Here is the input.
Amino acid sequence: MASTNIDVTLTPLFTGSQGSASALNVNQVIWGRAFRQGQDIFELFINTASIDMGYVSDAGVLFSDAEGELQVTERIKKSGPVTARVWKTGRPTVGNVSVIYTALPRLVSRDTKNGPALDLRVDQGGLIGSGMAFLGTPPNEPEVTILTTLRWDLSKSPQGTLAAWSMGDGEGPFEIATKSLVGIASGVQEAYFAVGPLHRMTSPDDYMHINEADVFNMYWFGTPTFDPLPLGTRLQMLFREMSAFFRDRGNRYRIFLRHNPFRGSLTGTALRRSFMYGYDDSERDCPPSLQDREAVLAHEMVHNWVLLTRESVADNWYHEGLAEYYQVLLRFRFGLLSAREYLEQVNEKLVAYYTNPLVTWSLERVQKMTWNMTDAQRMPYMRGFAFALQVNDVFRTARHSIDDLVGPLADRLQGGESVGVEDYLQRLSQLLGGDEIRADRLVTEMKEGKLLIPRVHGLEQLP
Ligand SMILES: [Zn+2]
Here is the structure.
């Protein structure tokens, strides 16, 4: 099978008397791949989903191979939500190709608009962000496996410097293999990175990296507005239980906390096996409760297993609704919520559903308003939640629960299969004794905006 190898070395640079991490030297060696004259050789994102990224120092991006310096020409390419700088080589390449540049953080202030947490930033003496923001890659080759070896060079870093990324912490090397997919060339872009005076909470059995298959770690710089340890300890327990519940094969998860100088409390973005969780200064005056934070992060953890790989935009009722359902249900089932708290949470969600002015709108119509009003943004979450209760209730007479529907879809997802709403429908009708018409009607009515009134069997029975 064809493969391209990429060796990536990341060297953080520090400035000031405090030794604050201020830039990242990126050194990539691409081997096992020859480029023709005029062929695209490398691309670096400069904007994704309206977030600026891809800043480099004035020295620019330097290319060379076995014959020395490579002359390149550059252009800007737009595709979907991504704008990228693309370089093509002026002559055929010989041997390994090296790409070297110094990546700089994005500058943010009080006035920066909150958005997906994909940019690279300075945070309390450290650097933290997603790989998309600073790791360029060669363009995709269909059907080629990319083997990336990633290392941190901390030999010139101040004492106490720690590096971590979604796939592990310490200097590495870390090896990952990925099939090239559209937009994600090397698999290292869909990950979070942090380096500097980093604090971490590790799984009890992880501090020697004995068991990389059972990891729940949390990382942060400086002093967050809350104590990360009690939250981390509860989430660690919950993640273990969730992994077992969803028959997880990887069993790894890493949460990165990051300070937002702008309004961005209880926000965040999920990448592979990891989540960037934002907090802001408003929390010092009105702190969210431990339960609030836990609910947000538990919801995100559920997405590890509850996700559709093929979906139209109006189908987010599936993963958002079920993430809401399971974050509440599993916290109750595994003892993090008392029966009373569980009921309160369920009622809170149902109240939000019934009082949403768009409750009887079709999801297609709701979707068009998503970025204009919060009610539209929240609707799929609440409707999907109410629908999960309804499906549970419908199943009760057939002695099934929604777990029998979601579990197999999660299995297939983990097995690398693509999963879509048709698969949900198929499994639903199977569990209804092959009643395709009924399955289809349930989903269609929900999407069209028929008011959902789940009955008593929709809820996990209280002890
Ligand atoms: Zn979600």
Q: What stands out?
A: The two ends are 54 Å apart (CA to CA). The chain has two domains: 3-302, 313-458. The domain at 313-458 is CATH 1.10.390 (Neutral Protease; domain 2). Residues 109 and 339 are 43 Å apart (CA to CA).
